[in-house]
């Protein structure tokens, strides 16, 4: 093997000798032996000169003592300061066999020329590792073991060890195709150039891949974006976002296109769509609620979550049944070895998780959370706090069993559960003023996920699921009873297949089937709870009479979908189609009358939903995107009551169109901007008729539209900092009936701005801040009142629908976190301070009893939340 | 953990909106009650309507009251207890019903089709309409607008209608057992000044108290005011026995009342409801009204002039 050595060749020239000791003039001693260099020390080649290829010679005068050591050294002919110093320093460490005069060792002075040269040295060695590296997890920067690193053109591979390292022997010089792969990782392919006689050391950062499909070709771990408009946040970033108390899923509320949810709601309003119109899926399985009541906390442990994707619209054909956005939550791969976990507590609740890998192929995790804020506050003296802000008592639990039968497949069995309870009572000397509320809601899900890569390179997955949802709400306004119970049992099946048919086309197909059986009971007012389009005053008891219904509904659909991903040079086009037949089956087409037997109904509707997504790379930094699609949503089973709603309600529809651009400002700083339009049709509204037909209190008369734009400037985690600025300008409107005018949507927020950032200070300290601004929600002004002597209440007379707004919201939140590593455990202490400026943000309008004066319920003033978390 | 929790307490307490209003204070002209006699009537039947109006200066003469029958049912989109069409000065579905107080008004013959359990008339070819929903006591109400002082008011006259969705047997049982509502009867007001001996004051009897005095007021009603009645239960679809709850609304023109309303639930057999009154700090005159309502719409009221020494 030949290699370049930096060693300098040395030229020793003895120009002459001269006795240092005084010679005897009568018999001058004669040199019997010249000094001989026995220990040579190589001078350090000045780096800059070496890099520049500069050679030099330095002539020095050296005194050699009688014992052979070097005494004084002087530069006689220099070559520059660096060369002179390096040569002198080396020469001082030389050792000689001393000169001898007349056979006796004698000190002498010699002239020495030190030459700095660069020469090629040929060394033949045994086989050497000349390509090596480490594979690290992209975000946690931890070594990844068991990852296959292959040199495709040489057909050789290596598997990373426990420390994530790999190495190859004697890789020929030249360009090689490298592939880094593992069953649960994004496959990374890249090229590396190996130079002759130079060892190359690499670091690869990989991430877990999307559970839904395999990632076929990804360059340098950059993900294939599934949607043209999509914001992805990984857990490690999300946990540090101020104001979320370390809750990964709460970060969704800070993403562009998402309206700020009002205090105590946690509702997701995306691109002007109603909260119920946005779907939430975890590993492809629908969840009814992303957050516990009041939005205090998410219903799934953050530590099981790998990432959250928000597609506010124009998403592809894999998903349907929603007019709004799509939130996809992906579960993370469990640690491959050891026992890990955490225990945490803060002002809201306590949580814990434990993971274990009993064998190489089996991994287990269990997690849970339990809240106590509802008991903590009254115990500390704030007994009526629940009257002001509903504080639910909640818990959730998760379990996951992962099995990796082979390199190309994995199985996961997942259990998810969530439960919320809220009970509050307001007593009064006035029987009509007493209030009570009892709410219980929750869900359970069990699903199996099977991913497999087939021998022909295609992949498929299968996700059967089963679960139930429940919601039991009981209110009492004096003697007026209000009750709504919804029980739902659901079966789901999601399956997909994907194959790269050619270099320029990848095809995928799948089915997304779901059948939900609902049993509902409702007692109370026709107009309570309020729905979109209702003109109401906060806290006003429901007017009108009461009624009762108990009904069953089954809504089943099977979304068959296919997508072709075409890559035509810089243009990527993904046309897709989703065909979804719906079956809506109910047990009661008309209200019960006497002993008349029930008459049921069954309807079949077909939704044909073309979808299109396109991206055009205008260079390495600019990508233009386009998305469009048609979407349908089945009726809400609560609206299919023959007494309170309309069993004839069918599908509502929407079409989305969006166009945007993504500009890569730096390797980690990206600017994304998107404009969009959504048209909504066949929305459900209340009948405006004084005498609506029987079983026709709701009608399909409403339409809607929302349009606007959003900008996101996002710095990914680099050098301890990440953050983003997002701004959305959105106008969302509804028209409840053809003869009505357009009005602002109840959740419309024209301007929503979020700025947030987090920085690692070092020594385990992190600080972060978040600023939010949002336009206030629309409200219908009260312009007068009339008196209702029966109830001794004033009733409002409303002005133009949604023509005023609650004043804007602005809040600055700060988070400070300290991480202490003790052996193999990590202690995190965090302090979240919300609304540090103590701004009184109006949240809702309230009126005096006669509506002559009004005031605002304000949001949370400065609120500090302390949390502690122990990881091992 | 204690410190953050305490901070949270302070924060949550800060959410309350402060509205400095006193529903019991009559500081502008307003209607305090409308009484129908009988308290419940069948369609076509004559009822006598009286309005109780008051202002800062005391009772308002109701002779200028103008009554309008509203025939427009409330649509599901209408907020409040009546159709928004009933708020218009005039128009289709608004029928003048007299002036002054009391006034006799005949309930429309089709009141139960418009506001009750009868199926509303439908145009040819149209599906049958949706009957109105009863209130929590099973009652249906014909709205009658009255304008006399301040904001308009809507008397809701309880109208006897059939059971719309009950079986024949249940409907028969209901007809047999149901008794139309009667107005409750207020007994003399019990007044106790500064914890002293209680005195009973009949309606219009004056109350003489010192300025700044603490006065305990105890409204009482006859035992049969909270009537027992039967109701068609919409959940079980059976007849259930119930009893009226009673509420007393209190109003004064000066001073301060502890409660705007007090009363008894239907499970509470007591026949009194108290309140605390602090008279103004200066001598003068004031007025006190108490309005008794049963949960089926029956009304009784009293007025007491107050002389503050």
- Percentage of helical residues of chain A? under 10%
Gyration radius from CA atoms of chain A, angstroms: 37 Å
Determine the strand fraction of chain B and express it as a percent band. Answer: 35-45%
Main sheet makeup of chain B: 5 strands, mixed
Descriptive notes:
The complex is a heterodimer of chains A (872) and B (309). Chain A is mainly beta and 872 residues long. Chain A has five helices and 53 strands. Chain A is elongated. Residues 1-25 and 211-226 of chain A have low confidence and may be disordered. Chain B contains three helices and 21 strands. Chain B has helices at 2-13, 111-115, 168-177, and strands at 30-37, 40-41, 46-55, 58-60, 66-70, 94-99, 103-106, 140-147, 153-159, 186-193, 199-201, 207-209, 214-221, 228-233, 238-243, 246-252, 256-257, 261-264, 272-278, 284-294, 299-308. A five-stranded mixed beta sheet of chain B has the order 2-9-8-5-6. A five-stranded antiparallel beta sheet of chain B has the order 11-10-13-19-17, with no helix packed on it. The model of chain B is unreliable at 1-14 (pLDDT under 50).
Write the layout of secondary structure elements.
The complex is a heterodimer of chains A (872) and B (309).
Chain A: E1 2-4, E2 18-19, E3 31-33, E4 36-39, H1 47-51, E5 56-64, E6 70-77, H2 81-91, E7 95-97, E8 99-101, E9 104-106, E10 108-116, E11 120-122, E12 129-137, E13 148-151, E14 156-159, E15 165-169, E16 174-181, E17 188-194, E18 200-206, E19 218-219, E20 231-234, H3 235-238, E21 279-282, E22 285-287, E23 305-311, E24 326-331, E25 339-346, E26 349-359, E27 362-371, H4 373-379, H5 385-388, E28 393-406, E29 409-426, E30 435-453, E31 459-477, E32 480-502, E33 505-525, E34 546-568, E35 571-586, E36 601-617, E37 622-633, E38 652-664, E39 669-686, E40 698-718, E41 721-735, E42 743-744, E43 751-762, E44 765-774, E45 778-779, E46 782-788, E47 793-798, E48 804-805, E49 809-822, E50 825-834, E51 842-847, E52 854-858, E53 863-871
Parallel strand pairs in A: 12-18, 17-19, 21-24
Antiparallel strand pairs in A: 1-11, 2-10, 3-8, 4-7, 5-6, 5-10, 8-9, 12-15, 13-14, 13-16, 16-17, 20-23, 21-22, 23-24, 25-26, 25-53, 26-27, 27-28, 28-29, 29-30, 30-31, 31-32, 32-33, 33-34, 34-35, 35-36, 36-37, 37-38, 38-39, 39-40, 40-41, 41-42, 41-43, 43-44, 44-49, 45-48, 46-47, 49-50, 50-53, 51-52
Chain B: H1 2-13, E1 30-37, E2 40-41, E3 46-55, E4 58-60, E5 66-70, E6 94-99, E7 103-106, H2 111-115, E8 140-147, E9 153-159, H3 168-177, E10 186-193, E11 199-201, E12 207-209, E13 214-221, E14 228-233, E15 238-243, E16 246-252, E17 256-257, E18 261-264, E19 272-278, E20 284-294, E21 299-308
Parallel strand pairs in B: 2-9, 12-21
Antiparallel strand pairs in B: 1-3, 3-4, 3-7, 5-6, 5-8, 8-9, 10-11, 10-13, 13-19, 14-15, 16-18, 16-20, 17-19, 20-21
